[in-house]
């Protein structure tokens, strides 16, 4: 791998943050990272993560399958799905509804009592204010109309606006998630992992963390095209830049068509059409 390729890749990575899927998927492999952010999201500072999985696939042969950005099993039995979303171009609430249904179904055995349906928490991190009420966090509750009595069926939905700064600890964490050179002593695991992925201290070598990111791409991947696509994504928010990058990843056999379609927030058939046009 040439020094020029390393430099271009470093420049590309330095534009990324935990809100970006490629960084989040690697960080979510770390149990301590998941534990640190969940303690803030759920306001439970004794929370303990027993198991965590990044890019957790739940396959359904006859129906639409899903890939969860991060899946965690907590000590108290709760199951948590964390999703990161940069683009505001899908029906987010219905996506959360579907993901929670597929996850719940996958956790139940045939004939098992409904009493054993696990508590599931869906945490949806958006780089925009999903409900446009200028809040950093939205907890969705089920209430009886007229009495406002809350009823709990074991499903919790939390939507987080990463772009809203209201002075809370959550906003501080979201600053680390979204701002290039923002770090916090209150979130040492998140801050250190982010820094390790983005920078090297000396020389022109990549850190081990950077190498893990680079392994997602093949060595012969055209870094210049990747950088241009990413710049379009970041600066202009254009779907074309994202799709072009994903098409290259699929062609190189790095991710599947299904995974690429999910990341582009389009159907598999639509993504396949893009792919056929480029072949």
Automatic annotation (TrEMBL):
Domain of life: Bacteria
Coiled-coil positions: none
InterPro entries assigned to the protein according to its UniProt record, in alphabetical order: Resolvase_HTH_dom, RpnA
Pfam families tied to this protein: HTH_7, PDDEXK_2
Domain Resolvase HTH: 242-277
One GO MF term: DNA binding
NCBIfam families per the UniProt record, alphabetical: T_den_put_tspse
Entry protein name: Resolvase HTH domain-containing protein
Organism: Lachnoanaerobaculum saburreum F0468
